[in-house]
Design goal:
single chain; 339 residues; alpha/beta; 7-stranded parallel beta sheet; two-stranded parallel sheet; 40% helix; 17% strand
Length: 339
């Protein structure tokens, strides 16, 4: 069994490659190692992965059609886990074209590669951001997601639509995963937990948006990886009994499926910060600010479809997850890695 993981030097990609190689699978990882955040962190992740002979790496930008096509032509992949994307809600406001290149053109190139090489199952990263203006909680994969509030979210919704068309036209099994605020060791520096921790240890002020009146379904990285691993061998299948009129939006007559991957337990932002303060044994200096453009007030995942398919529901508590993150953070940013 041979796997392709895009975004292999990224947060989720790194942890997935680590798990797959430990299970004994051959893994090809690709990443363009862009400078959206600290490249040293990406290279540190990659250094660990390269210690395993089951892992091979190529510096490939998925928006490069020739390079991506050549990758599929030269290697047969049984499964593709497509995690590479331009991340970040606020960054999309000032840098929209980065999202068109990576999230739209890049996703199309991966779909084309999977189509022509007859990949058995494509799993790709969507996002809880697609729920946009939806105020009904918990968010269900069968809710409408037609009103995104950021370009990032719109590109993720577009990825789901593009994937459905390929599932329908070419019988390519595709599974989209709507991730809910993933955190943990080796996380992204642009995410709240990382930014808060860095500011607190340096005795600097943290920005708390919407005056702290927000909730997030924080999902620990190990739970995300376990969800992916369990879904690898559960490709969606054709369902001729499905119809638009009576069928669920998260599935189709085509081999297509969408799942929420969240903790099914939203946490108030201030409680999240309090737990971090406890772990760091320090009180944060807080700068309370209004809601930022593109942000949503609350996220809350209905994970019943994931449990139905896999028998698994993410369940790591924030106290455990934040403690593990802080242990890694303090160790990584020692004398060897200066903040």
């Amino acid at each position: 069994m041979n796997f392709l993981v895009t975004g292999a030097a990224g947060f989720i990609g790194f942890h997935l490659c680590l798990r797959l190689t430990k299970l004994g699978y051959g893994v090809t990882g690709i990443d363009n190692l862009n400078d959206y955040y600290d490249v040293n962190l990406k290279e540190s992740r990659l250094k660990i992965l390269m210690e395993n002979s089951k892992f091979s790496f190529f510096n490939v930008d998925i928006s490069d059609r020739v390079a991506t096509s050549s990758l599929f032509f030269n290697t047969k992949f049984n499964r593709v886990i497509h995690l590479a994307a331009q991340a970040g809600v606020r960054y999309s406001i000032d840098n929209p074209y980065a999202y068109a290149d990576s999230n739209l053109l890049g996703h199309l190139n991966i779909l084309e590669g999977c189509r022509h090489s007859k990949v058995e199952h494509l799993i790709y990263a969507s996002s809880s951001s697609v729920y946009g203006l939806n105020r009904k909680v918990p968010f269900s994969v069968n809710d409408s997601v037609d009103h995104p509030v950021s370009l990032y979210a719109a590109t993720k919704k577009a990825n789901e639509l593009m994937s459905h068309s390929y599932s329908h036209l070419y019988q390519l099994p595709t599974t989209g995963l709507r991730f809910f605020t993933v955190y943990g060791p080796w996380g992204r520096p642009d995410m709240a937990l990382f930014k808060f921790a860095k500011a607190i240890v340096n005795n600097k002020t943290i920005d708390v948006y919407n005056n702290g009146m927000m909730t997030r379904d924080f999902t620990y990285i190990d739970d995300v990886i376990e969800s992916i691993i369990r879904l690898l061998d559960i490709p969606p299948v054709v369902n001729n009994a499905w119809s638009v009129e009576v069928g669920a939006p998260s599935t189709s007559s085509a081999p297509y499926k969408i799942y929420n991957v969240g903790n099914n337990s939203p946490t108030n932002l201030m409680d999240y910060i309090s737990e971090l303060e406890i772990c760091l044994n320090s009180v944060a200096h807080k700068n309370f600010m209004p809601l930022q453009p593109g942000d949503v007030l609350d996220t809350y995942a209905d994970t019943s479809e994931l449990f139905k398919a896999t028998g698994f529901t993410p369940r790591t508590s924030i106290s455990t997850g934040i403690h593990n993150f802080v242990d890694w953070f303090i160790d990584y940013y020692s004398d060897e890695h200066l903040m």
